[in-house]
Write a structure and sequence with these properties.
Elements lengths: L23 H12 L2 E7 L5 E7 L5
């Protein structure tokens, strides 16, 4: 018997915002500089633009 799939994977939270931007590379650079974000995953498209990315923000406390 297989294990049940978790609705929320480990390391993710119940709220995961999703945004669309024109320049993914610039957006990731901004999030890193402004918020100390860590890039977890990027998936480029055929043209080298960011098709999908995941970042993690440090939660104070």
């Amino acid at each position: 018997m297989s294990k049940a799939t978790r609705a929320i994977p480990d390391g993710y939270y119940s709220i995961t915002p999703y945004i669309t931007v024109h320049d993914g590379h610039a957006a990731l650079d901004f999030y890193q500089r402004a918020f100390g974000a860590t890039v977890v995953l990027t998936m480029p498209d055929e043209a080298g633009k960011i098709a999908h990315a995941e970042i993690q923000l440090a939660i104070p406390g």
